[in-house]
Amino acid sequence: MAVFFGSHMPLQSSRSSLLLLVLAGLLAGCGPAISDYVPPLQDNSPSARRVEVMDRVLKAADQLRALFQESTERFRFTDLRRSIGRAVEAFDPNSPAALTSAAALAYGAGRVDDGLALFELALEVENTPSLYSEHATLLVDAKAYAAARELAFDGLDRYPEDEALRVASDRAIDEDPVLLPPTPLRLTPSQADSIKALGGGSTVTFKLVVAGQNVAALKPDQDLGQSMYRSEIAFYRLCVLLRCSFRVPYNAPLEIEKGDFETLYSRVDSDKQSGYRSKFIHIKWHTGEDGATYLLATWKEWVPEFTGFPIEATSTWTSWVTAGSHSDLEEKVADWLPKLAEAAGPRGWTNNKARVGYAGEMTVRTLAQQISDVLSMDYLSNNWDRFSGDPELYGANCHMEPGGLVAIDNGAAFPPWDTSRVERRFKLTQRFSRRFVLALRRLDHDKTQERLFPGANTDELKRFEIFWGRRQSLLDRVDALIKEHGEDEILAF
């Protein structure tokens, strides 16, 4: 029997294979318990999680020794008993091979956190690109795509030229049916309660109600040029690829047959619902391959709890992202927020209490990184609609939820023209997230185009090329700032 692990190469010895197989089985919780087992102390100050995982590994090794001691007593041949004894004594549960083999079963059983804890232990012994790529590949095979991406991206940050890591990274992106659905989601009346008018802005937007709960906002294809439903999807995907520190709600393409849309919309009888029909003239209907008429839209995860964040009050935060500044980045955001409220115009104090609650123990350093990432993403995507020029509307398009900033409305991203206002706002930051910049450097033109705008039409190709040009401009600016101020000062987050 051979155990396959990591790069799928078999272990050399069947005895080693058996050892690792039993170890992995015990780690995965399918081995017998040892009631009188007392875990040895492994470290003077390990985290509770590491103690738990390492104890389980050592428990497995202890079980193996007991199992082989019992079994070898049945053999009459001394040489065979000695051979097995040597294999048991030589077994190292701390070796990267043993930990990776055990992690493989943990990943396969859906115990991703257990497997990643084992990866961290193996990394302390052997920090190599192959270790990253092996675990990323195992995670992809276990369909844990998000975890696989993060691990592969971490590996590429450290080993940018490693081909196996690039392959694992591509698989973690392209094989993920949640990030890149092969076909649009199909919504029928049996799957939802209703579609309701959302309103509140200049574009056509609905909300989807399932089991009495709002589960998604739906932004359809429409002729209002200030919004594009595919831009919402592309913005979300780009943020995944660039490892944004702020959150973008999940977006995916959706299609609804016209009759089904009418059925779902008609289930709500209200003046607002009836009046909103006047906006339907802006919806673009599409004919499918089956000859039916469809509404195409983005299915945008509903954000249940948020409030406006008046990013427009730039004087309160620009020092955080200015090269050479000595601002206290360890200050608590909750302590800083009254300064933002004071500077944010007539509505500055509105919902300040909610913002303080959402900030929790967050430090200024974390918020500064999120602001830097927002400005960088808006520059890259040419998103001109983040800031409002009207003090009464400060915070209308930049929001905060528990844990930090959330970018809910990104329909103005990727327009087919350049906007100078985005350029001015981008220049407010001179400090950037290291992992954001590294991820931006390694983007491949053709792969990224297909991921953001699959099957792009001529207009979308133009939008993408504007983005690609801005990518190079951002990297050129970062490189110039690094030359002037040093890498650690510019890649500060």
Task: Produce the secondary structure layout.
Layout: E1 4-5, E2 9-10, H1 14-27, H2 48-72, H3 78-90, H4 96-108, H5 112-125, H6 129-141, H7 145-158, H8 163-174, E3 185-187, E4 194-197, E5 206-210, E6 213-220, H9 229-242, E7 251-257, H10 258-266, H11 271-275, E8 285-287, E9 293-301, E10 307-308, H12 333-343, H13 352-359, H14 364-380, E11 399-401, E12 404-406, H15 420-426, H16 434-441, H17 445-452, H18 458-485, H19 487-490
Helix pairs in contact: 1-2, 1-4, 2-3, 2-5, 4-5, 4-6, 5-6, 6-7, 6-8, 7-8, 12-13, 14-15
What does this protein structure show overall?
The protein has 493 residues and is of the alpha+beta class. It folds into 3 domains: 4-126, no CATH class; 187-301, Phosphorylase Kinase, domain 1, CATH 3.30.200; 307-490. It is built from 19 helices and 12 strands. Strands 3, 4, 5, 6, 7, 8 and 9 form a 7-stranded mixed beta sheet that branches. Strand 5 (206-210) and strand 6 form a beta hairpin.
Number of helical elements? 19
**Main pleated sheet:** 7 strands, mixed
The helix/strand class is alpha+beta
Radius of gyration: 27 Å
Uncertain spans: 1-47
Beta percentage is 5-15%
Please identify the oligomeric state: single chain
Mean pLDDT: 87
Shape: globular
Distance between the termini: 48 Å
Number of domains: 3
Estimate percent helicity: 40-55%
